[in-house]
Amino acid sequence: MLERLTPEQSQRLVSELPGWALTNDGKGMVKQFVFADFKAAFAFMTQVALQAEVMNHHPEWRNVYNRVEIVLTTHDVDGLSTRDRDLADYIEHITR
Amino acid sequence: MLERLTPEQSQRLVSELPGWALTNDGKGMVKQFVFADFKAAFAFMTQVALQAEVMNHHPEWRNVYNRVEIVLTTHDVDGLSTRDRDLADYIEHITR
C-alpha cells in the first residue's frame, strides 16, 4: 500500500536531492532543468518519459526551448510518496 | 523578414483552426489536447518536437499524463507570425 510521506519525510527528501524544492502546497516536489538547446531538453524528456512509463508514475512538466520544469506528486495519496522519490532518483541519475 | 501578424490576422488565424484560441495577451495561440494515455500524449509530443526542430520553431508546452497544452508564439516579433501558423498547421495535420 502506497503511503503519503509525512511533512518531515517530504522535507528530508527534497533536502537530499540537489535543486529540488517542495511546491507551495507541500504536495509535490519541483526542479528546473536547463540544457544546451531544445534537442538536449527533449532528449532528456524522452528518457524520463520512458522510465515514467516503466514505473507507471508520470511527471507533470513544462518545456520552453532549453528549459524543463518538472513537478512530481502522487495523486493517489494527495502528496508525495516513494514513487516520487524513485522517479526523482532516476532523473538525478541521468542528469548527474 | 519575419513580421508580426496584426490583431486581425491573429484572430483570423485562430478562428480558422479548430480548438485554438489567442492567449490573454494576444501574443500567442493556445490549444489543449487530450489523448488516451501518457504513451499517446508523449508520442504526439515527439512528433511535434521533431517537426519543431526541422522548422527551428519550438512550442511552449505542458504535459500532465494524457493532456498536452501547447502555446505557440514568436519571441522575435513579440507576437504571432507565420511560423506559428505553419507549426499549428502541422499539429492539426497529425491530430486530425
From TrEMBL, chains A, B:
Family per record: Belongs to the pterin-4-alpha-carbinolamine dehydratase family.
E.C. number(s) listed in UniProt: 4.2.1.96
Organism of provenance: Chitinivorax tropicus
Tree of life domain: Bacteria
Pfam family, one: Pterin_4a
Top EC class for this record: lyase
GO MF annotation terms: 4-alpha-hydroxytetrahydrobiopterin dehydratase activity
Keyword rRNA-binding: no
Keyword annotations: Lyase
GO biological process: tetrahydrobiopterin biosynthetic process
Protein name: Putative pterin-4-alpha-carbinolamine dehydratase
Signal peptide per UniProt: none
InterPro entries: PCD_sf, Pterin_deHydtase
Entry-linked SUPFAM superfamilies: PCD-like (SSF55248)
Catalytic activity: (4aS,6R)-4a-hydroxy-L-erythro-5,6,7,8-tetrahydrobiopterin = (6R)-L-erythro-6,7-dihydrobiopterin + H2O
PANTHER family on file: PTERIN-4-ALPHA-CARBINOLAMINE DEHYDRATASE (PTHR12599:SF0)
